[in-house]
Amino acid sequence: MPRLDTLSLAAARRIALAAQGFGGAKPAPLNWGHLARNLERIGLHQIDSVNVLARAHYLPAFSRLGAYDRPLLDRAAWGPKGKRRLFEYWAHEASLLPLTLHPLLRWRMAEADRGERGWTRLKAFAHERRPEAEAILARIRAEGPMAASDFEHGKSRSGWWEWGETKQALEFLFWAGHIGTATRRGNFERVYDLTERVIPADTLNRPTPEPAEARQRLVEIAARALGVATALDLRDYFRLKPHEAGPAIEALVEAGTLVPLTVEGWRQPALLHAEARRPRRIEGQALLAPFDPLIWERARTERLFGFRYRIEIYTPAEKRTHGYYVLPFLMDEALVARVDLKADRQAGRLLVQNIHLEPGAPPDTYERLAVELAAMAGWLGLEGPAQIIR
User: Fold this and answer.
1) How far apart are CA 181 and CA 77, in angstroms?
2) Average pLDDT score, the chain
3) What pLDDT sits at residue 44?
4) Would you say 293 and 22 are in contact if contact means Cβ atoms under 8 Å apart?
5) CA 1 → CA 246, 253, 261, 267, 334, distances in Å?
6) d(C-alpha 18, C-alpha 24), whole Å
7) CA dihedral sign of residues 36, 39, 45, 50
8) Is the pLDDT confidence value at 386 over 70?
């Protein structure tokens, strides 16, 4: 076995930040091309329903590029079929992905259709409850895009499903690739339609790679997005199982795409993407969503930054340590603070509810944080905080 090279933790951190798109100049004005290149770099935007500040899928692009027109992303995801550039599917969690990744996830859809993947309660719709799912699919085919709540009003006509069961059947059909997200409605409720009416024909007509090839390409995308990573990090990016990611990693090492090495302080072996940038420094600042791909794998965040991060949305208020919707603050090459933010849309203000500095945070942390908060407030159309309480 060849000798493994060693990478310092500081170098690994810079490689990871550069791979995620941090440290470069923020372009202005921003257009769809900038957003597309950023999304191609990181592979996906995770979707989450919490809207206390802004929907999670909007934030990674702002963190890396600065203020952009959010309707650009909306149109790319849920606009007219012929102009779509993104689609929704289960990738990391619920995610927005470039259409180029659709063929790479068809093996996962096929597994779900056979009842081999997805939540346990959904698998019944691949087998004994298949007729119920097929009936829902037929109704969408006949009536057009529908949300789960639309079936609630039609219950008396069908007499088959409680609302929860309807949603489960819809999610099975979504997992299995029979339907996609046509749009989002009101409180961000997913509206489903037939896949062929959601995904552009040129995407559907692209060849479907063999599962092993598709998984290898997903691992390569993850490796490029992470820069340097453990095998577990690579698996987690697209939620691959060990037997799915293992052969893909081995093939990429054999091809020279992934370079085995050790990182100072890491217990597990690391893998470096052969084309990863190795900058001497990273400069800039950003507020990071809890579901940003730089930090969504909490163990990796702790390994890279010495920063233990847990989201406390589901923790009772009196037991929270840092706040409800806490964004880590990245300053140059370190996570230096935690900021609990809320968009008070009725008052038109960005509220800073708490700030916790990390040990060793630089003296200018508050000053640079104030700049980023003002930029975020402007982007969200809110009045920024008059001052930061120290």
Assistant:
1) 9
2) 93
3) 97
4) no
5) 18, 12, 12, 19, 35
6) 8
7) negative
8) no
Task: Give burial (CB, 10 Å; 0-12/13-18/19+) of 17.
Answer: buried
Q: How far apart are CA 192 and CA 195, in angstroms?
A: 9
pLDDT tier at 49 (50, 70, 90 boundaries)?
confident
Hey, what are 37's tokens?
A: 């290149």
Check: CB of residue 180 under 8 Å from CB of residue 199. yes
C-alpha distances out from residue 312 to 24, 317, 324, 326, 352, Å: 31, 9, 6, 8, 16
Cis bond leading into 29, ω under 30°?
yes
Q: Which amino acid is at 17?
A: L
Beta strands in the chain (DSSP E): 5-7, 45-46, 86-90, 94-98, 146-147, 179-185, 189-194, 228-229, 258-263, 270-273, 285-287, 326-331, 334-344, 349-357
DSSP string, 180-230: EEEEEETTTEEEEEEHHHHS-HHHHTS----HHHHHHHHHHHHHHHHSEE-
Single out the residue of 53, 72, 120, 88 nearest to residue 198, CA to CA.
88
Distance, in Å, from the CA atom of 136 to the CA atom of 193, rounded to the nearest integer, reads: 11
The Cα–Cα gap between 164 and 101 comes to 30
Measured CA to CA, the distance from residue 96 to residue 234 in angstroms comes to: 19
Residue 310 token pair: 């847990």
Q: What is the pTM of this model?
A: 0.94
User: Among 268, 284, 195, 265, which Cα is nearest to 232's?
Assistant: 268
Of 272, 253, 252, 277, residue with least CA distance to 261: 272
More confident position, 4 or 125: 125
CB-based contacts of 188: which residues, under 8 Å, 6+ apart? 49, 51, 55
152 pLDDT above the threshold of 70: no
For 79, other C-beta atoms within 10 Å of its C-beta total: 16
**Structure confidence at residue 187 (pLDDT):** 83
Cβ atoms within 10 Å, residue 313: 13
State how far the Cα of 332 lies from the Cα of 240, in Å rounded to an integer: 31
Q: Rounded to whole angstroms, how far apart are CA atoms 192 and 170?
A: 8
Q: How far apart are CA 385 and CA 352, in angstroms?
A: 7
What is the distance between the alpha carbons of residues 158 and 244, in angstroms, rounded to a whole number? 40
Q: What pLDDT was estimated at residue 338?
A: 98
